[in-house]
Amino acid sequence: MGRHVVGNAAELPPGSRKIVTLENRSIGVFNVNGAYYALKNSCPHQAAPLCAGPIKGTNLPSKPGEYRYAREGEIIRCPWHGWEFDLTNGKSLFDPHKCLVKTYEVAVEEVREEQEEPSVETYRVQIEANKVVVYI
Predict the structure, then answer these.
(1) C-alpha of 105 from chain center
(2) Domain boundaries, the chain
(3) pTM of whole model > 0.90?
(4) Is 129's pLDDT higher than 80?
(5) Superfamily in which the 9-110 domain is placed by CATH
(6) Distance between CA 45 and CA 10 in Å, rounded?
(7) Burial class of residue 53, CB neighbours in 10 A (0-12, 13-18, 19+)
(8) Which of 31, 49, 61, 93 has most Cβ atoms within 10 angstroms of its Cβ?
(9) How far apart are CA 45 and CA 101, in angstroms?
(10) Per residue in 67-100, pLDDT tens?
């Protein structure tokens, strides 16, 4: 498993997404209410660019004639045929045990900038009694 930095956390506020290509795979990275998730950018139905679809909520089970809309910002809908997937685990809403999208681990880490090493070897120089002295 390769480690890839895809950007600063501040560039991906809650409700946003970023689609990147890592190791020849298109992957969508999402900030869902402050937690980060990554999905393969391909719908299992006909390989549509799933991560480009609208992000919505869904209706929860309820009594006849009653509608309970919830989970706003947690469900992505395929832009081609409307198949819906849970962004938090990649599972389909209609058949979560058989239809799912590949997910990837996401972490927010502090990345330290590496200091550039000098490209040439240097030596300490000092002047002693009008003589230039190099220390190796």
Answers:
(1) 8
(2) 9-110
(3) no
(4) no
(5) Rieske [2Fe-2S] iron-sulphur domain (2.102.10.10)
(6) 33
(7) buried
(8) 31
(9) 10
(10) 999 999 999 999 999 999 999 999 999 999 999 9
Query: Residue 28: what pLDDT?
Result: 95
Distances (CA, A) of 20 to 23, 51, 99, 128: 10, 10, 23, 59
Pair 62, 87: CB distance under 8 Å: no
Strands 55-60, 35-40: pairing kind: unpaired
Q: Which two tokens stand for residue 35?
A: 């937690």
Edge-to-edge strand list for the sheet holding 25-32:
17-22, 25-32, 35-40, 103-104
What does the pLDDT look like over 27-57, one tens digit per residue?
Answer: 999 999 999 999 999 999 999 999 999 999 9
